[in-house]
Amino acid sequence: MSQDINSTPPPTAAAKSVFGSRFIAAARRRRTIETRWKAVPRPARALLVLVLVVFIYLLPSLHLPIIPTSSDFTALLAMIIIPYVLVALGLNVVVGMAGLLDLGYVGFYAVGAYSLAILTSQHATVPWLLSIPISVGVSMLAGLLLGAPTLRLRGDYLAIVTLGFGEIIRLLAKSSSWMGEQSGIGNIKSPPNIGPIKFSGTIQERNIAFYYLAVTFVIVVFFFLRRLESSRVGRSWTAIREDEDAAELMGVPTFKFKLWAFAIGAGIGGLSGTLYASNVRFINPDNFQLKLSILFLAAVVLGGPGNMVGVMFGAVAVSYLPERLRFLNTSRYFWFGVVLMVMMVFRPQGLLPRKLRARIKPRDSDVPAFVDVSEGDPDLEGGSHGTATA
Fold it and tell me: Residue 8 gets which letter from DSSP?
């Protein structure tokens, strides 16, 4: 009798084993977009990426039947939409990849913009090309100085500190003569002309030139972050985001990698700030209010935290909708907020979430089960067995 009992596996273990095998089979049938993309031959992928990049560069001259706004579409692309995409990629490093809540990201955006303005017009005449890496470096230093004493905080406490940082930068700019006080800084240098790409030509030529520059920045940052995501740094960020205590127990130096996330995110935010300052050629403290931090965060949440393609779509939506609703005057942000609330009710995981929520019902059971299928999960691709909670 005892031998029969010992030789028979518990029902729960058997159920888990059967369900686990069915889960693997179902997950293989429902491969995510990323795994389908990886299944495409590398030459075909390179060709598709090249075609997409060419299409993006030619977008201002294609005159597509896009819903019109109250402003010129090329100017909208150059001054608002593409810089928002760049900012969203930077904030996604902090919020989406490392799982840290940052409510003062506009502070790094302002640091980059003011660094470029001071270097090129206010107190020095540094060449524009040299001022860009210096401004990005200053922004990264600001991220390190903010993160070093505060990244041991978590959750709401960290959010409050970052919120205060954004306001401190704005108030410092308003009260400092070095930063132009309330009057701001004007006559900021633009990039030098590159052949037919004229940054100092007509308004239309400037808009197209800055669009090309912004798209180039976005492409470089995107591929840099893509490589970083698949490296040891990216895997450490994922571990910290999912469970920081468990990551520490596994030997991950969580503080160091959180500091890296803050520094890299701050650098990308500063890069976007330099792009903005070079384009408008005049900045003052009112350009860096708290509502920008909220819009930046909304872009990441709307697109799907942790998914770079998703946050790019979220940034396009967040930057385009207020312009599309400009005819509503002062109430446009109210209706924009309503749209975001509806989106969060019906799609709380964002437009393109990092994980695909799958519902699987075993044939021999009436009890539904829910599992999280990670995009490109190596365990699923390799066919190893796993368990799921029924």
Answer: S
- What secondary structure does DSSP assign to 263-302, as a single string? HHHHHHHHHHHHHHHHHHSEE-GGGG-HHHHHHHHHHHHH
Collapse the DSSP code of 251 into the 3-class scheme (helix H, G, I; strand E, B; otherwise coil) and give the result. coil
Closest CA to 162 of 140, 144, 173, 147: 147
Average pLDDT over residues 83-108: 91
Cα–Cα dist 345/237, whole Å: 28
Percent of the chain with pLDDT over 90: 24
Between CA 310 and CA 177 the distance in angstroms is 41
List b or e across 207-217, with b for residues whose CB sees 16 or more CB atoms inside 10 angstroms.
bbbbbbbbbeb
CATH of the domain at 288: 1.10.3470
Question: Three-class SS of residue 193?
Answer: coil
At what angle are helices 155-175 and 106-117 packed, to 10 degrees?
30
3-state SS class at 361: coil
Cβ contacts of residue 184 below 8 Å, gap of 6+?
A: 282, 283, 284, 285, 287
**Could you tell me if 265 and 93 are in contact, meaning their C-beta atoms sit under 8 angstroms apart?**
yes
**223-267 confidence digits (pLDDT tens):** 999 999 888 998 999 898 888 888 888 888 989 999 999 999 999
What's the domain range around 268? Answer: 69-324
Please tell me whether residues 221 and 344 are part of one structural domain. Answer: no
Q: Is there a single domain that holds both residue 27 and residue 107?
A: no
Of the residues 324, 342, 377, the one at which a domain ends: 324
Residues 272, 292: Cα–Cα separation, whole Å: 13
Span 321-335, pLDDT tens digits: 777 777 777 777 777
> Model confidence at 145, in pLDDT bands (50, 70, 90)?
very high
Which residues fall within 8 angstroms of residue 171, CB to CB, at 6 or more apart?
285
CA 61, CA 67: separation in Å to the nearest integer?
A: 16
CA distance 124 to 127: 9
Residue 112 lies in a domain: yes
pTM for this entry: 0.77
Strands 282-283 and 185-186: antiparallel
Which pLDDT belongs to residue 368? 42
Do 87 and 212 belong together in one domain? yes
